[in-house]
Amino acid sequence: MPSKPLIPDDLVPEFERGLSIAIGTRDGELQADGCSAWAARVHDDREQLTVFLYEAAAPAMLRNLEQHPEIAVLLERPSLQRGWQVKGRFVSARPARDDERADVERQAHGFRAELQAIGIPGELTAAWSLWPCVAITLRAERLFEQAPGPGSGEPLR
Fold it and tell me: Which of 39, 43, 37 has the alpha carbon at shortest distance from 23?
């Protein structure tokens, strides 16, 4: 019997809608480092996730991942105060392709709409630089609930 995929089918559209996405890595001295990403794509196997971050933010993340392949990705939907943390291992990095740009922009605009829904004016996010991006793929190993209330921080069932 095949094992159940780590990322449930019902979370795929949620992860790809336009969320606040934060990436966490660590350097050779085990110091935490992080940055934001603009978009995420769940692979068909539901075990891999690709996150798209602005190219200027990528060098520190890639240096860290070469030394320590552990990575954490926090995906949050501010308007619902709901979030998920994916912990896994670095698989690969590459420049984002031109055919991925529209989806990156769609998700970044979806995140901007989330921020507007909680009262942050669009003028404050209108100048964000979205492109070019680097695509970082990780193999998800653990998935956690990050919503306030009972069960927060617990593995997603």
Answer: 37
Q: Say if CB 138 and CB 53 are below 8 A apart.
A: no
Q: How far apart are CA 16 and CA 120, in angstroms?
A: 21
Single pTM value for the model: 0.89
- List per-residue pLDDT tens for the chain, 157 residues long: 446 778 889 899 989 998 999 999 998 888 888 999 999 999 999 999 999 999 998 999 999 999 999 999 999 998 888 899 999 999 999 999 999 999 999 999 999 998 999 998 888 888 888 899 999 999 999 999 877 666 655 556 6
Tokens representing 80 are 């619902």
Q: Which domain holds residue 41?
A: 9-145
| Cβ-proximal residues to 35 (8 Å cutoff; 6+ apart), any chain | 22, 23, 53, 57, 58, 60, 61
- Specify the number of domains making up the chain: 1
What is the rounded distance in angstroms from the CA atom of residue 24 to the CA atom of residue 85?
A: 10
Instruction: Supply the CATH number for residue 41's domain.
Output: 2.30.110.10
> Is 55 inside a domain boundary?
yes
